[in-house]
Amino acid sequence: SPPSNSTWDYIIVGAGAAGIPLADGLSESGKSVLLLERGFASSHRWGGQLRPSWLDGSNLTRFDVPGLYGYIWTNNTENSGILCSDYEATAGCVLGGGTAVNAGLWWKPPHDDWDLVFPPGWHSADMAPYVEKAFRRIPWTDTPSTDGKRYFQNAATKVTNVLTTAGYTALSANDHPNAKSSVVSNSEYLFLHGERGGIMATYLVSAAERKNFQLQMNTTVARLVRKGDTVTGVEVEASGVGGYSGTIAVTPNTGRVILSAGVFGTAKILFRSGIGPKDQLEIVKASPEGPNMIDEKDWIDLPVGYNLDDNPNAFLVALDPTIEAYDYIGAYNTPIAADAAEYLANRSGPLAQVEGPINPIFWDTVTGGDNITREVQWSVNSGALSNTTAIAFTASLGRGKTARGRLTITPNLTINVSTLPYFNDPGAHDATAFTAAIAKVLPLLQQLPNATLYQPAPGVSAADFVKSLTIDISMSASHWVGSTKMGPGGAGGEGWVVDTETRVRGVRGLHVVDAGIVNGVPTSNPQSVFVVVAQRAAVEILKLG
Ligand SMILES: Cc1cc2nc3c(=O)[nH]c(=O)nc-3n(C[C@H](O)[C@H](O)[C@H](O)COP(=O)(O)OP(=O)(O)OC[C@H]3O[C@@H](n4cnc5c(N)ncnc54)[C@H](O)[C@@H]3O)c2cc1C
């Protein structure tokens, strides 16, 4: 039935890494929950249809097949409407959000990700039960193909040999989550039974079994409906077939709206609803939709968009003609027939794993001149490059980095990254630490048998290489966090947007639960942190009644 037929105890905006587990947790209580998603169904399980013809007749879409992951990075018409077109940065705007389009890397967060990034109350001892639950519901695998084999591993084997000879410890990262210094692991994924799986195959399934839960796709929340400081509902626009337009209300006095629209989506809704820095609200006011905006006397000044964080990436490349290569991009429309058949029949073979292949992953800890320890995660992938083959090492500066950026809105309501969170920290300690990490690994590339250094060029030092990097959004790891900072709760302390119960400061009946409330990038690819945070947030929100 149309979502406006009833009022809702909880309206969750955005069915991504955080919104889906949150919907499951809240609906478990028996309270009514509406989950609104701007995009269309991605996974076949939810009615998804988008797929190349070789998947016709199967219960799979492009989103379900790990081997089709890499295609999202190509400039092809099949990709239109999947990534959010109104953000400068890359994000998924379909059911599942980032989890529908991402590489599926799934890491148990080390204790420091909670203890050093989150306020008290959200530290590792508090979060342990939620971490356990997330990894019970979505187990990890380092062999996504159901035959238990990893394909095209000759680069991974060479790299792991060089690393272990140089003193790195080989282990399973998810069996030893706190070991994040000089360690190397196979890539660990959330793929299930050779398919993407993840939150759409677990948390959304259990939520959808409950009568008090409803999912409404193809429906974009334009803005909140509020009277003064109290949110009473949302205003929505149909954004696809079967979408809904109108106003949807929460249960009077007790209902809550929870924004889980991702870093960019949540900020956009807040700005359009008169919540944020004055300069941003004035841009919305001056835009064509200005007349629909809440009166200026009801604007609420909060630092939405500041404290933006993300990992900057840098790429080291060694050429090696002996490396295996597989055409994952060509496989989108015209896979090797035997590989397609093997995948369709058994969910095994090359198409059950993501392109690269991405393997191994390794971590180093480096301390900057400011005595702050920073994590660097290295991801190795390999395959064709021009008319030869190569091994690429992606260095990603992670937890501990201190640079921060800002997102802002434009007059046509696009969300931009106006200040990049890369290497702008006073004292340049991020760059010094990143340089030290690269200086350690660069000589190891030269020890790879048959390899010749390609990037940086031979003879270029790590310091000169880091200095030569172009600081722009192409450095992004697509791991944006922090733009609706979680504060200490209680009195005092400027610069935060939500309290430790995820309530938006100074607004009644409004929460944010998504990557935006994670105050800085964690150690590794972050989606597990958001799933864990959402489970915890559900408990906090239910306690509020
Ligand atoms: C290409 C790519 C690869 C990645 N690879 C990995 C990886 O391998 N491992 C990992 O851990 N992380 C990875 N990430 C990062 C991870 O996917 C994201 O950080 C994570 O999904 C963010 O979670 P979220 O809940 O904050 O937002 P999202 O997952 O982005 O969910 C937000 C949802 O809200 C919806 N929405 C937005 N605005 C509105 C609105 N106004 N009304 C209604 N709905 C709205 C969106 O459509 C979306 O479904 C990757 C990201 C990308 C883009």
Automatic annotation (TrEMBL):
Gene3D superfamilies: Cholesterol Oxidase, domain 2, FAD/NAD(P)-binding domain. Its cofactor is FAD. Belongs to the GMC oxidoreductase family. SUPFAM superfamilies: FAD-linked reductases, C-terminal domain, FAD/NAD(P)-binding domain. InterPro entries: FAD/NAD-bd_sf, GMC_Oxidoreductase_CD, GMC_OxRdtase, GMC_OxRdtase_N, GMC_OxRtase_C. PROSITE patterns: GMC_OXRED_1. Residues 92-115 form the Glucose-methanol-choline oxidoreductase N-terminal domain. This is Cellobiose dehydrogenase. The lineage of its organism: Eukaryota, Fungi, Dikarya, Ascomycota, Pezizomycotina. One of its GO terms (molecular function) is oxidoreductase activity, acting on CH-OH group of donors. FAD binds at V94, V221, P526, Q527. The keyword Ion transport does not apply. Pfam families: GMC_oxred_C, GMC_oxred_N. It comes from the Eukaryota. The keyword Cell membrane does not apply. Keywords: FAD, Flavoprotein, Signal.
